[in-house]
Every structure is written in C-alpha cells, then in structure tokens.
Design a protein that fits this description.
Layout (H helix, E strand, L loop, with lengths): L9 E5 L4 H12 L3 E5 L3 H14 L4 E3 L7 H15 L4 E4 L15 H29 L2 E6 L12 H21 L4 E8 L8 H4 L2 H8 L11 H11 L10 E4 L7
Parallel strand pairs: 1-2, 1-4, 2-3, 4-5, 5-6, 6-7
C-alpha cells in the first residue's frame, strides 16, 4: 500500500468526459479506483469510459447527468450504487460560465445559472453522496474551484463569485463532516488548457498577457490538476480538510 493508493475506492466525477475531470478520472483509475464518468452528453461519456477501460479493464462506467437537474444527479448516484455498491470519493468538477463582461451587463437568468450550476449543484451532489461516507466514517469530497475565487476580475465576476462561494461551501461542510472522518477540500486551478477556458488562451496575445506575470510563464495542463486530486482523495491527504489547494503555476503570488 502506498500513500496514493485508491484500490477499492469508488469515485463519482462530474464534468469528466474531457478536460480536468477526464484527467482526474484517468489518474484515479491508474491508482486503483473505480470511476464514474459523467457529463451532459452520453456519447462523450461512453468514449471517455471506454478509453479508461482500455488501460484499466472494468475501472470505469458512464452515467450522463446534467448538473442543473437534481433528478439527474440522483440518478448518477443511484446508478453508481447499482454498479459498485458504494461511493468513497465525490468530485464536483462540472461548472458553467455563460457570460463574459462586467456585472452591470449580466442578466438575472445568466447570474442564476452560474450560481445554480457552480454552487447549488455541488451542494446537491455532496448531500446525496455524504450519508454513506458518514456511516462508514470515511470519505473525500473535492470541489474544483478556481483562483478566480481569490481575485477580482472585470470580465468573469459572476463566475468568480461562485468559485469563492465554493471555498466557503468546502469549509462549512468540512466542519460538519469532520467528526465523521469525511474530508472536504477545494482545488483552485489557475489557467488550464481546456475547452472551457479556450477564450482565455486560444488567442496568442491573450495567452501572452495571461502568462507574462506567472512565475512558470505558461498555462497548465489538465493532468497537472489530477495529481492534487489524487493527493486529496488518498491516504496522503488524510489530515487535510476545509482547504483550497492552489495549482496555478504561481499566478496568485506574482
């Protein structure tokens, strides 16, 4: 057994057909976990699960779910229980940001969608997964937040507000669940090369501005977030709870 061994663990990961969620799922499977791939569309989920199973036979299943639907999330939990009989790790990775611009221009519907998908849906899924973790007195919840929740921004303000709330959600739940040995933490990525963040890195000039003051002088790759997730989900992170682990190439200290 190593500090990072996840053998026998079952992980539900939202937004895991691509990007950061897909990288986390792949690394969890590599470290011995069973993983549940979930995002809105069935076909990308199936392809991601198939790719993981090609390397780690029987490690992955696909259960599509729209995080804005409480019924979809309950079905995600129910199907995981049918397949594997338990949930040990809950990773709330999926998020949305339908608006770029100053807060003065955001519509109520756009603001509500950001808050519902990035905060309320995490609360729903965690509350569905937590009871069995509490009963076993063992479990790990990981919320993928963002360094945006630590900084002001004139263009993605509503998104940043939601990500700041995720930090507090983790702290509150860590206080509630801690006596039951269930840990709740956030990962706060910087700019990562994903489709979700494409608007922030695809243009060479925008990318240059984004990385000019970052100590590592580059943006991150999805797999560079997965290591932090393995740490938080495994024995290596067994005394860490209520924290936000920043993985940003040094952007927030520059």
């Amino acid at each position: 057994m190593t500090l990072f061994d996840l053998t026998g663990k079952v992980a539900v990961i939202t937004g895991s057909s691509r990007g950061i969620g897909r990288a986390i799922a792949g690394r969890f499977a590599e470290h011995g976990a069973k993983v549940v791939i979930s995002s809105r569309k069935a076909e990308p989920c199936r392809k991601a699960a198939d790719a993981i199973n090609a390397e780690h036979p029987g490690a992955a299943i696909a259960v599509p779910a729209n995080i804005s639907s409480k019924d979809d999330l309950q079905n995600l939990v129910d199907e995981t229980m049918k397949a594997f009989g338990r949930i040990d790790i809950c990773v709330c990775n999926a998020a949305s940001n339908p608006y770029y611009g100053p807060l003065a221009g955001i519509s109520d519907d756009q603001f509500r969608k950001i808050l519902d998908n990035n905060i309320l849906s995490n609360h729903w899924l965690i509350q569905m997964c937590a009871p069995q973790m509490i009963e076993r007195k063992d479990g790990a919840v990981i919320i993928v937040s963002s360094i945006g929740g630590l900084r002001g921004n004139a263009i993605i303000g509503a998104y940043n507000i939601s990500k700041a709330a995720d930090f507090q959600l983790a702290r509150n739940l860590a206080a509630e669940f801690g006596p039951h040995n269930v840990r709740v933490n956030c990962i706060a990525p910087g700019l990562i090369k994903t489709d979700f963040a494409r608007a922030l890195w695809e243009d060479p000039e925008t990318l240059k501005r984004s990385t000019a003051g970052t100590p590592l002088r580059r943006i991150g790759e999805p797999d560079e977030i997965a290591g932090a997730a393995v740490f938080l989900a495994s024995k290596a992170g067994s005394f860490v709870t209520g924290q936000a682990i920043v993985v940003d190439g040094g952007a927030t200290i520059a």
